């Protein structure tokens, strides 16, 4: 008689954004006349940039002719895209990453969920708290996380690194030594980040204790301050301890296009075994590449026209971030984030939980945000708003919040 | 100190098609003047059908305007595609499958590799031998397969079901009871299939012993005989024991477009737990949907124009299959397959191994095929050729083989 993976059954409730989606649908169904503004899920609203649209049309045409048709992609992804990334994201910034250390994928969510597979089953993970739920949940599914304590909302075999206003929203080196450390800067959900000097401390620590850092740089395009690193490979020694996850979702609006990449330097080893080889094996066995059309779209992100258009797109969202942050400040909220990231993190009013505030905001202002507690126990008492709406909706949402 | 997933290290050598790729590259580099014809990997060569190209252009345009832009897709995939599949692939054939039992993905390879995750770690799998390598390899990676015997090329905890000319290339019910049974019909690599009555025996068996059948129907579009089932849900009782994997790669040429689907009926349960819920949880947590543009391309597969164009495309490849089969027969080979599948399975000459014949064919005829032993120990002595080349190349390859 077949049996299921019991680890799946340990997961409490459904995935955060599914829960939000259901709550919003229920509210809308009960109040069909209300105009709900969604500043919750990190989905973008601006259309794809013209340079990307043009590249995609061209690629679609290629697929329609036998001479230019493309079937299965190369295992690691097309060389044209990997080279563009190696040059623009790394080498031009003085970082030693080669094109064959980059694996193209259909998105950073998949990669951040799948990367744990190449590590031992008894690996101990460390995560920032609050954190993007995928890191912990996928380790739960793999049986790495012990038992769940519903009261503290924590797993017994996970090292939580609180990131609250008391720590300036940055993690401190853990007392217990982890095997795998998930870091995401600029951070989702807090919108905060750390300096290059601070990240260097993490790289030094990981090399010292023999841990791997899984560095999620999905929001690097939003960095505005000069001492904030755009990639972990700006730090010395990162090639022997760090994997970097890259996304096209937020810098180029690819949430519905699906493209990402994982960088694994060939110097990152366990004994003689390169993690690069293990990930290559996973790619070759369980994955069949991102669509040709999408990889061409990714290439256009690095064209001169693409770069200029996307700079404007990021600026558009960051103007929203400024609007939200200033508006909330004016309304008397304590806020952080929004300077190097499209996320604004606010403290909910005293006496309310994060979910109380979610319901309150949905009902009183018809605005959807994300409860901080959905990202981990230290997120309780906080709330995330995103800058990915339209400017008009953002202004309208802030006006409603002010009038609440 | 971090440790790797040791199961990955148990895998012997690299993935079959990577090995072939490397051998062919080396030969081509050493013989730059030779015109190699590839009838090895199951990649298609015909361009996308006009109805699909048109749908993709339209979808690209939508992505370029804020009013019609699409961000994150719904967890299970867009309703327009799931409904088209439910109607065309199931309901019109009298099978009770609903749109919300279909999960859209980026391809059957990913799904066939990932599906094992929702089962217990100590599940025992049964596979046809020879078989698509992904089924076994992904279970190796998950630690389900015991130890590898290099001499027999088998894993200790796997039930192999030989499919050779002695069994008419069909598996027989195993003596030992499996938890999970992988079946693929029409079969890759043998090109053979089983009748609806034979498949009904498997469904009855699975229901009787409490096993789950993972049914890979990637090649159903190539079925030409009337008693061969197009889906396992044609069999009574399949809703309580079968998961079906569907691909767009071979029926619509989507190898470089990437689209697939997994069907999990809500009646398929372990105790109170629906496998549907577990897969939904996996989708929600580790995956972010196939691109909007690609899902629209999938929808066009089911349009009237799309259907007509793809019928011609399949006929084109099946004409190649006929050419290969007849040519090989004329050349004195024992061949099977090629009637309900785009694969021709031939016995290699006495005294040669499958890899010997691979090298022989590459060197003497500059034709690339796939060694049967790459698909499992019972594939030794056999060789796969695919009908996915162009007609011109197919004719030329057969001419060269005849002249060898």
TrEMBL record, chains A, B:
Enzyme class per UniProt: transferase
InterPro entries with a match to the protein in the record: Aminotransferase_I/II_large (IPR004839), DapL/ALD1 (IPR019942), PyrdxlP-dep_Trfase (IPR015424), PyrdxlP-dep_Trfase_major (IPR015421), PyrdxlP-dep_Trfase_small (IPR015422)
Catalysed transformations (reactions): (2S,6S)-2,6-diaminopimelate + 2-oxoglutarate = (S)-2,3,4,5-tetrahydrodipicolinate + L-glutamate + H2O + H(+)
One GO BP: lysine biosynthetic process via diaminopimelate, diaminopimelate-aminotransferase pathway
In-chain residues carrying the UniProt-annotated modification N6-(pyridoxal phosphate)lysine: 250
Pfam families linked: Aminotran_1_2
Binding site for substrate: 15, 42, 109, 132, 188, 288, 384
Lineage: superkingdom: Bacteria
Domain Aminotransferase class I/classII large: 35-401
Keywords of this entry: Aminotransferase, Pyridoxal phosphate, Transferase
Enzyme Commission code: 2.6.1.83
Similarity-based family: Belongs to the class-I pyridoxal-phosphate-dependent aminotransferase family. LL-diaminopimelate aminotransferase subfamily.
UniProt-recorded name of the protein: LL-diaminopimelate aminotransferase
